[in-house]
């Protein structure tokens, strides 16, 4: 009887060992499971699972189901989630560096956006390291345009719009053109449009498609103003707790996700615009006057950003300009 118990206990221990060796992470994101960012993250999680032989499993929580967009960074920093996806520009009030790629007309193409990313990556890593986090990878949204029911011949036509503001930069744009900023997160855009809380906003074709904006608004001005980036960040203690082979597998999967994500964003940009057209939305090329007005807004915001960011910001902009 004793021998049987010992054998059973030994067998139980042998079975338990692989389970004990497995690490599970939560990764919240604010966007729908069907969004290309989320699909890319799901592939990243699957790649990590495969590369580590199941030692590290990452559970992706889409559509702000675990934490709302503004809460994700703090959740990762505090260890409530081991990793998470954030929109960097959301945190500009915390530090100007996070708002860099939300400055209108600083980087308007994928090529320039990647140059800006390279120029700022070390500063971003250093900033997050002080907060106990690190970047795993970053992927841009497609270029930003304006959704509105109005005809916009110039920035003066934007005065009084109930403007969705999802970041300090989009709030600042509203202020400079005389629109009324209303804070609305991505998961709430459709409801905000349906209830009249907002009647306009600036975002990519992806957000317009995901939120079914075409059901409420018929004009999208393709201003190609900037390409804000999402970053998948990780809690440094959670990362350091992994063994070296698992860390290496995680970083390799992250590098692959970044390369794949940039390519996917560019490919999907045209697809999203085509979908908006098919749903009856007018894709409008902005007038020279509107473009000139928005560029003035961008120049004002860049000058303001440089004043706030000081020498660190100056170095990043100089590193970016050298590549152009």
Question: How would you describe this protein?
Answer:
- The structure is a single chain.
- Helix 5 links the parallel strand 6 (162-165) and strand 7.
- The protein is globular.
- It is built from ten helices and eleven strands.
- It is an alpha/beta fold.
- The chain has helices spanning 2-21, 36-51, 69-77, 110-129, 168-177, 189-194, 205-210, 236-240, 244-278, 288-323; strands at 23-28, 56-61, 83-87, 133-140, 145-148, 162-165, 180-183, 200-203, 219-221, 229-235, 282-284.
- 50% of the residues lie in helices and 17% in strands.
- The longest helix is centred in the last third of the chain and has 36 residues, at 288-323.
- Helix 2 packs antiparallel against helix 9 and helix 4 crosses helix 10 (288-323).
- Mean pLDDT is 93; it is low at 1-20.
- The strands form three sheets. A six-stranded mixed beta sheet has the order 7-6-8-5-9-11.
Which labels suit this protein?
324 residues; alpha/beta; six-stranded mixed sheet; three-stranded antiparallel sheet; 10 helices; 11 strands
N- to C-terminal distance: 78 Å
Biggest sheet architecture = 6 strands, mixed
Order of helices and strands: HEHEHEHEEEHEHEHEEHHEH
Lateral arrangement of strands in the main beta sheet: 7-6-8-5-9-11
Strand coverage percent: 15-25%
Q: What Rg do the Cα atoms give?
A: 22 Å
Which structural class do the helices and strands define? alpha/beta
| Count of β-strands | 11
Which of globular, elongated, flat, extended, rod-shaped describes the shape?
A: globular
Q: Give the assembly state of these chains.
A: single chain
| Uncertain parts | 1-20
- Provide the helix percentage: 40-55%
Average pLDDT works out at 93
Number of helices: 10
